[in-house]
Amino acid sequence: MVDFEQIKGFVFDLDGVIANTSAYHAKAWHQLADELGVEWTDDLANQLKGVSRMDSLNLILKSGGKENDYTEDEKKKFAAEKNDNYLKLLETLDSSEILPGMGEFIKDISERHYLISLASSSKNSPRVLEKLNLAKYFNERVDPATLKHGKPDPEIYRRGAEILNLKPEECIGLEDAIAGVKSINGAGETSLGIGDSKLLHEADIIFKDTSQVTLENIKNAMLIPSR
Ligand code: BG6
Ligand code: MG
Fold it and tell me: What's the whole-model pTM score?
């Protein structure tokens, strides 16, 4: 692992790291899975975390053995329906739903002049950041519509460093998803996994929840890598 002193920037996932919107994604997918007659399990929910809209739908269909049952147009309709349901859940979203400590952490690193970018797979991320009143802290954002490959491919995190004009080894990526941790590691950045240490065991540093995410804790954890 690199030294903490080398770090110049942070590349953030959004859903499940900055706000609890991953629960809203899960709720909307669960609703669609029920309609399609696909059993909703914790394992499926974890597989979907961090994964793009169409890739998520394909994983749900595959899990139910229905991957060949629908045309591309029908699949687009299902994905649009999920997104409409997700957007309804976002209507009341505001800064009170920022996960514990994350507002303070983002403010702190911004004041200390670290560079900050967003590497979310979500096409709704600009809307979510605005609603959380956090958009002003982000120097750059990767537009997921411009990517060839979604998480776990490293492309999104590699781009997250590039748009800050930083080398991957100068960046820490923050993730709650297995696919996201793999993407950060593949990009050559330091991975900070937030959540279950069994699921996120590939991360360089693992914190059990967002309240542990402070510069001091990161600095200490970088002295004792978990991987
Ligand atoms: C990720 C979420 O951030 O974005 C996934 O973890 C979601 O659950 C993905 O499917 C794509 O989001 P959207 O808003 O473009 O459908
Ligand atoms: Mg996430």
Answer: 0.95
